[in-house]
Every structure is written in C-alpha cells, then in structure tokens.
Amino acid sequence: MTGAKDVSGASQIPILFEDNHILVVEKPVNMPTQEDDSRDPDLLNVLKADIKHRHNKPGNVYLGLVHRLDRPVGGVMVFAKTSKAASRLSDAVRTRHLDKTYVAIVHGKPPQPTATLRHWLWKDTRTNTVSVVKPGQHEAKEAVLDYKLLGSQDGLSLIQIKLHTGRPHQIRVQMAAIGCTLYGDQRYGSAVNKPGQQLALWATALSFEHPTLKETMRFRSLPPVQRPWSEFAIPEL
C-alpha cells in the first residue's frame, strides 16, 4: 500500500493506513518514538493525542508500541490500537514475521554487492552506545542483517537492508563494522561526518499479517528528495 495523508489536528504525522486495530504512519526524522529524557514531543504520545482529537474519544487512548525506530531515523511504523492487535504484532516481531526493510547511504563501498552480516552487539546503557564484541560476551546479543548494494558514486553507496533481528543501533553499528559508516552518523562515524548532517537511514518497507484479518499488509515510504538521497534513484521496494 502506498500514499499518505496528513492527519488533522496538531500532529501532522502522515498516515499510511488506519482501521480499528492498527495505525501505520510515517515517522518524521528527529522525533523520538516514545518519551525520553529530552522531553521533546514523541511519536507515541503525539499519535495518542491526535486519535483522541480526531475521534473525539473520552479518557485515555490506547496505542500499543510494538517496534521502534532510532530518533534520527524516519519511515514506516505500525502501532496497535487494541490490546489484541498489540499482542499479535508483538508476537510477529518476536518470531521475526514482521519484515522490515531499510535504505541507507554509507561512506565507501561494501566489500561484496550482497552479504549477510552477523555480529554480537553489546550496549553500554551509561553512554547509550553499542559496540561489536566477541560471541558469547555477557549481555551481548546476536545481530543479523542482509544488505544489497544498489549504487555507488562520489564516495557514497546506496544500500538496501533487511533486518532479521532488531537490536539497538544495529544497522549503524554493523555497517560501520565493515568500514561503511552511515552518512550523517555522528555517534558511530564522527571521523567522516560533519556536525549537523542528517543520518541517512530510512525505514522504507514494512510487511506483516493483519492481526485480525489475517491478510498480508505491505507498506512503503520513500525518503525525502534532498541531499544525500537526491543523489541516487531510490527504488520503490
């Protein structure tokens, strides 16, 4: 399914699909998925307020968060509007039946045009940073993704990425581990990125089984037509 509409009210979050059970939206860049220490407006609470406004709902609005995107990442996300939908979508995430595809622009060119990356990642909660460690290290978790090179020019490459696990900062850390730091990544690529550059990572496709209709739902979202995205032809995956 494609296309988007801006919701009424204050939120102005593009909605890709909505019914009684799910809400699929395009997350803006630099908005937290849920409330964090910054206390900036977050997507979850903005959407709750918008549903309350648009549907004139009394009391608290239920909206279940079943997966996340890092703050600087934009693109397609699904939320659950009922507890039944939340349970079934969370199970789809756990069993890897919620398929997520991203596009990213990285510095350099990966060593192979297509490959599966497997790393063990450990998160330092004090600094909110993730690093590649030896297999089996205490509290480390295996991270797996597939990538495909879509094009290269002027020292940059456009990469398609399919996640098999959903670890914090996974794409950013795994691509940096093979020498392909993401464009604009200040946290894991300060040596090659300039302050103020926007992270070039976009959640471009999402598919899952509808929690009640049992139909396969597919959604797409393309990154904004601005540099560095405008330097490449972004395929509609």
UniProtKB/TrEMBL annotation:
Task: Give the keywords, sorted.
Answer: Isomerase
Start and end of every Pseudouridine synthase RsuA/RluA-like domain?
21-177
Question: Do you know which InterPro entries this protein is assigned to?
Answer: PsdUridine_synth_cat_dom_sf, PsdUridine_synth_RsuA/RluA, RluA_PseudoU_synthase
One family name in Pfam for this protein: PseudoU_synth_2
Enumerate the GO terms in the molecular function aspect: isomerase activity
Catalyses which reaction(s): a uridine in RNA = a pseudouridine in RNA
| UniProt record similarity statement | Belongs to the pseudouridine synthase RluA family.
Q: What is this protein called?
A: RNA pseudouridylate synthase
The organism encoding this protein is: Paenibacillus violae
